[in-house]
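User: I'm new to structure prediction. If I give you an amino acid sequence, what do you actually give back? Let's try with this one:
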Amino acid sequence: MTNEREKADLHEIIEGVQAQFRNVARIQRERAEITGRATVRKRVTVTVNADNKIIETKFGPDIEDLTYAEIAKAVTEAAQLASEEVARKVGELMSPFEEQRARLPSLSDLIEGMPDMRIPETIEAPLTPPAAREDSFADGAVARDKGSAATDSSW
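Assistant: Good question. You get back a string of structure tokens that encode the predicted 3D arrangement of the chain. For your 155 residues, that looks like this:
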């Protein structure tokens, strides 16, 4: 009888995993449709997709009143704001899945002596341009490349 109960438990776990896979596939499809859009200075609008890739940039009337540096700054700011919108939407989409996943048993609950696996925390990438920051490397070295930028007047 114990063997039958174990088979039933295993079958239930497998069904749960398959349901999770179907849920992941649905979430991936829905995520692929997410976009974020932001307008800065009422003249620069940037749209990004769920991978935070710019898919559209539009300039409004009187864009010529801005300097190149102002336009560049507005495009960067709009792209960052649009990416924040994408992150919020993806978070809302993922929230029910994360809650459901948190209720699943861990590997150590299922298999005695099995260590739990953890996904490392995400490291946020800086929003400053490379030339404006000091990059640190694992060995302690610091790159201080303050080279030319696209906004240099020498262009």
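You can read the tokens as a compact description of the fold. Here is one thing that stands out. The chain has three helices and five strands.
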